[in-house]
From TrEMBL:
SUPFAM superfamilies in alphabetical order: Ribonuclease H-like, RNA-binding domain, RBD
Cited InterPro entries: ESRP, Nucleotide-bd_a/b_plait_sf, RBD_domain_sf, RNaseH-like_sf, RNaseH_sf, RRM_dom
Compartments, as annotated in UniProt: Nucleus
GO CC terms of this entry: nucleus
Keywords: mRNA processing, mRNA splicing, Nucleus, Repeat, RNA-binding
Stored PANTHER family: HETEROGENEOUS NUCLEAR RIBONUCLEOPROTEIN-RELATED
Organism classification: Eukaryota, Metazoa, Chordata, Craniata, Vertebrata
Family (UniProt): Belongs to the ESRP family.
Biological process terms in GO annotation: mRNA processing; RNA splicing
Name the record gives this protein: Epithelial splicing regulatory protein 2
Major subcellular location class: nucleus
């Protein structure tokens, strides 16, 4: 038996069903006995959505109103009624089993599964197997239109079936027409047999993905994975993921679509930490195309961007490994947990003792993999295998418990992450291409940022990530002429990508006010941009890692100069990229895919963005990310261009610290440490306010924190 099913949401209809995340508001179904060609009662049920607002298209097509939906039952109750009524109809027809049949894949894959997953209730088994009437119709009638172009109307017209939409309610005529189409396919001329239903995977299968060759299964990383190929039509890149999301969270986001085994590869940065992106490989191109329709759907409160990716990118993340990793991952269907912050002297026995008997490790010591540097020194990270979800959950409960004198962080992990983290220690370049480490100038720049309290600047927030300097100038319109020379400042995040923020220095406070009034919430491409008036001091704080919100200024977490042995010059507050370095940041550097350029001794002239000699791109040096699983990284230092070094050697500078040894460097700070915690740590020691105030430029708010009381700090 078949249960012919039709549904509608409060938003898009037809080919875009489910693409806008709107909730289900209508279900219509009818049981069909394929042997006796009898039908059961036709049922129509409205569904009460959490958001009763209907799109114009929905109102026009369905004729439904929010008032009518407000009296309906919620989705979980409707699905219970569905199961009960179908069972009753089957008994009347003398049948016991059935399979769903829908008009295409969208209702099952893009509406029911995602919505029930978000609302945290389970669908019955019948929703994991269904017939796609469009595919079955094309199989029965090969000369008909392509599957993607089929609709209920086109199938009915092909068969010469009459449709009178005016006489039937919305949803009712669709189900009746689908039943008529099925009976035509069962007629003596066709004798169509429904044999191969579409399936939805119950859960995501973890582990290294596998390939079939000559009837045998081989683990990809044991088969020269770098030389293998992956169909680029099956891979997507998800961007904007929460830092703590696991492969299971990503699989849940794509609930209803079939991801290949081990097909979720979390991307890591050069430090081995997750960068908020993942590559996902689906079982076929049809599933991939459906995944692309979930662009900007939400995972919690964050929207996720979904783009096409290539098989090469997926193999680069999920394909490479070493014999050490191959042996560790040889056991399939294991849950992987990553441990971070282990004492460098920790042994396998210490880790097993820390985990205890309530979460036994698979294979004992063989289920542990310590991550080490190329010279053999431990990194403080380790991966652990557990045979079931229960043991893994018990292990995660030990998050931030103490081993030795350190607290240990535990996170879910994946096979791809194991491969990346371990393999990355052997590589001279990171697995994920990023922009070069920001260059800290060692010489004063001729183009510095004003730090006064005059509100002659504007902040642009919510820019499209692909927006460049030219887009901003076009957005500003006539106000472009009021921008100071070299006054457009793009803010980049820790990965070297645009953060969505920019600052613009105007010629006067009045000009800044007029721009903020005129351009606030004006559209740039497909996004509206917020424009706020601010001062140079506020702009400077944000560019150096602080935050600017309604509560005022929050100074950067690491505003003090960072000194690393043997000797690094402290950077100025107005950290402008030198002219020799500006050429590294070409416009294409603002695009999602970046390359690591090589600095040369003879640097080309500075590229002109606006309006004359230099482009200014600011890295948010001290921006840090919450744990888990991305912890803050220290500011990276690389050698300045030779020209800058030579100029620094001949330049005369006023000593920042007149007394040798007046600065101390602290290592091993907790990742969430703020300025007050550091000052409190040095309670009882004094400092010279005059010397300290000359070290960096401070706002009145930050200076008051540092000066009262004096005994907090000794620097």
């Amino acid at each position: 038996s078949l249960v012919v099913l039709f549904g509608a949401t409060a938003g898009a209809y037809g080919a875009k069903l489910g693409s806008d995340e709107r909730e289900l508001i209508l279900l219509v179904w009818q049981v069909v006995d394929l042997h006796s060609k009898k039908v059961g009662t036709l049922h129509k049920s409205l569904v009460k959505a959490d958001n009763l607002e209907l799109s114009d298209q929905c109102r026009e097509v369905s004729g439904l109103t929010p008032e009518g939906l407000g009296k309906a039952e919620p989705l979980d109750r409707v699905l219970q009624q569905f199961s009960q009524l179908v069972s009753s109809d089957l008994k009347v027809l003398g049948r016991s089993s059935y399979t769903l049949c829908s008009d295409g894949q969208l209702l099952i894959r893009q509406v029911l599964h995602p919505e029930t997953s978000k609302k945290n209730f389970l669908l019955s088994d019948c929703f994991y197997s269904f017939y796609d009437l469009r595919k079955e119709f094309h199989t029965c009638y090969p000369s008909s239109a392509a599957v993607k172009d089929q609709t209920i109307k086109t199938m009915a017209e092909y068969l010469g079936l009459g449709i009178d939409e005016a006489e039937e309610d919305f949803g009712v005529w669709q189900v009746k027409t689908m039943v008529a189409i099925i009976f035509s396919m069962l007629s003596e001329g066709c004798n169509h047999v429904f044999t191969e239903p579409e399936t939805v995977k119950y859960k995501y299968e973890t582990g290294p993905w596998i390939k079939t060759s000559f009837g045998f299964y081989f683990l990809l990383f044991l088969c020269s994975s770098k030389s293998e190929t992956v169909d680029s039509e099956t891979v997507i890149r998800a961007r904007g993921l929460p830092w703590q999301s696991s492969d299971q969270d990503i699989a849940r986001f794509f609930k209803g679509l079939n991801i290949a085994k081990g097909g979720v590869a979390l991307c890591l940065n050069s430090q081995g930490r997750r960068n908020g992106e993942a590559l996902v490989r689906f079982v076929n191109s049809e599933q991939r195309d459906l995944a692309l329709e979930r662009h900007k759907h939400h995972m919690g409160s964050r929207y996720i961007e979904v783009y096409k990716a290539t098989g090469e990118e997926f193999l680069k993340i999920a394909g490479g490994t070493s014999n050490e990793v191959a042996q560790f991952l040889s056991k399939e269907n294991q849950v992987i947990i990553r441990m971070r912050g282990l004492p460098f002297t920790a042994t396998q026995e210490d880790v097993l003792g820390f985990l205890g008997t309530e979460c036994p490790v698979t294979g004992g010591k063989e289920g542990l993999l310590f991550v080490k540097y190329p010279d053999g020194r431990p990194t403080g990270d380790a991966f652990v295998l557990f045979s079931c979800e229960e043991y893994a959950q018990n292990a995660l409960k030990k998050h931030k418990e103490i081993l030795g004198k350190r607290y240990i962080e535990l996170f879910r992990s994946t096979a791809a992450e194991v491969q990346q983290v371990v393999l990355n220690r052997y590589m001279s370049t990171p697995l994920i291409p990023t922009l070069p480490t920001p260059i800290i100038p060692v010489i004063p720049s001729p183009y510095t940022i004003a730090t006064g309290s005059i509100r002659d600047c504007v902040r642009l927030r919510g820019l499209p990530y692909t927006a460049g300097i030219d887009d901003i100038l076009e957005f500003m319109g006539d106000a472009t002429g009021d921008i100071k020379p070299h006054g457009v400042h793009m803010v980049l995040n820790q990965q070297g990508r645009p953060s969505g923020d920019a600052f613009i220095q105007m010629k006067s406070a009045d000009k800044a006010f007029m721009v903020a009034q005129k351009c606030h919430k004006k559209m740039m491409k497909d996004r509206y941009v917020e424009v706020f008036q601010c001062s140079g001091e506020e702009m400077n704080f944000v560019l150096m890692g602080g935050t600017l919100n309604r509560s005022g200024l929050s100074p950067p977490p690491c505003k003090l100069p960072c000194l690393s042995p043997p000797a690094y010059a402290a950077f100025q507050t107005a950290a402008v990229i030198p002219a020799e370095a500006a050429a590294l940041y070409q416009p294409q550097a603002l695009l999602p895919t970046t390359r690591t350029p090589q600095a040369s001794a003879a640097a080309p002239p500075t590229v002109t963005y606006y309006p004359a000699q230099a482009a200014q791109l600011y890295m948010n040096y001290t921006a840090y990310y919450p744990s888990p699983p991305v912890s803050p990284t220290t500011v990276g230092y690389i050698a300045a261009p030779p020209g800058a070094v030579a100029a620094a050697a001949t330049a005369t500078h006023t000593p920042i610290l007149p007394q040798p040894g007046a600065l101390v460097r602290m290592q091993g700070l907790p990742y969430n440490t703020g300025m007050k915690e550091i000052l409190s740590f040095f309670q009882g020691y004094q400092y010279a306010p005059d010397d300290y105030n000359g070290l960096i430029q401070l706002s009145d708010q930050a200076r008051s924190v540092l000066q009262a009381p004096k005994e907090w700090v000794c620097l």
